[in-house]
Structures are given as structure tokens and as C-alpha cells.
Amino acid sequence: MNGKKAKRIRRQAKEMLVGWLHTQIDKEDHDKITTNNILSKLSKQTHFFLQGKMTLAPYSFKWAIKQIKKNEFNG
Questions:
Q1: How far, in Å, CA of 23 to CA of 69, rounded?
Q2: Pairing between strand 47-50 and 53-56?
């Protein structure tokens, strides 16, 4: 994957996470969450153990990138 495509995917992942986080918080706090500060608002833990395996934590930045790549290349 080239750099332009990777940059576009990262930008899209941030926008997706901002949209998701806006559904979880009050409307008054929507202006506090932007694509510029979304990574500081999310949990720093990106992985966890589940049934003896390490998996990606849902709604982490890495998880969002993986979902975008999976959907982009499969359909």
C-alpha cells in the first residue's frame, strides 16, 4: 500500500471514530471531540486477551484501520 492510500485510511479511521464517539456522549460535548484530538481521548490499550489469544480492542484506532481495510479490499 502506498503512502497516499495509507494516509487516506488513517484520516477516514479518525473520522469514523469521531462519529462513533459522538453517539456515545452528550451533544454539548461534541465540539470538544475532533479529528485532531481523537487519539488522546481514546484508550491507550489497543489489545486484550480473549480465550487465550491477544486480539484488538474494539473501537481503537488500529481496529478502525483494520475494519476500513477489510471492507475496502473485500467489496
A1: 23
A2: antiparallel
Distance CA 47, CA 58 (A): 9
Pairwise CA distance, residues 53 & 38, whole Å: 28
70 touches 15 (CB < 8 A):
no
Q: Is 15 helix (H, G, I), strand (E, B) or coil?
A: helix
Q: Please, which pLDDT band fits residue 17 given cuts at 50, 70 and 90?
A: very high
Its pTM stands at 0.85
Contact yes or no for 54/75 (Cβ under 8 A): no
All three cell numbers of 69, joined, read 481495510
